[in-house]
Specification:
The chain is α/β, with parallel strands linked by helices and 157 residues long. 37% of the residues lie in helices and 18% in strands. The chain has a 5-stranded mixed sheet with strand order 2-1-3-4-5. A hairpin with a 2-residue loop joins β1 and β2. The radius of gyration is 15 Å and the shape is globular. The mean pLDDT is 95.
């Protein structure tokens, strides 16, 4: 008899799946399909997707919206102990906000060699001159994240 597969409802792969679900919501609303979730003690405390076009706000990236939600849930701007999962490597604005809010760890899907600030174009998350450094892990569910972005931009062109 073959054992039943183990279904893990925590861990990087699972939480990135949640971020991907939110990226699909962005896609459905004709936003760049990026989703983010923030996890504290193995529980999701914030979920968001890009809403730049909807809100007419260049700062309405999935990560920024999730950081704001998480701060509201915790009741503090310091997000110590939190991990942020996002489908695409954070830009400078988002990476800067992650450092400022003291996020412990950032996990992302697809890298961005042109504008990524977690090792792509530069590494803002671990700059020695800043008062906090975030650990980061790239490439989790990278293909799914890349495929979603490519599909979106193919449709737009």
């Amino acid at each position: 008899m073959t054992p039943e597969p183990i279904i893990q409802l925590t861990g990087d792969h699972y939480f990135m799946g949640e971020a991907l679900r939110w990226a699909v919501k962005a896609y459905e609303k004709e936003e760049v399909p990026i989703g983010a979730v923030i996890v504290l003690n193995q529980k999701i405390i914030a979920r968001a997707y890009n809403q730049v076009e909807l809100l007419k706000d260049a700062t309405a990236h999935a990560e920024m919206l999730a950081l704001t939600q998480a701060a509201e849930v915790i009741g503090d701007w310091r997000l110590t102990g939190c991990t942020l999962f996002v489908t695409k490597e954070p830009c400078c604005m988002c990476a800067g906000a992650m450092v400022q809010t003291r996020v412990d760890r950032v996990v992302f899907g697809v890298g961005d060699s042109k504008a990524g600030a977690a090792g792509g174009a530069l590494n803002l998350l671990q700059m020695d001159s800043l008062n906090h450094r975030c650990d980061f892990l790239p490439g989790i569910r990278e293909k799914e994240s890349r495929d979603l972005l490519q599909s979106f931009f193919r449709e737009k062109r």
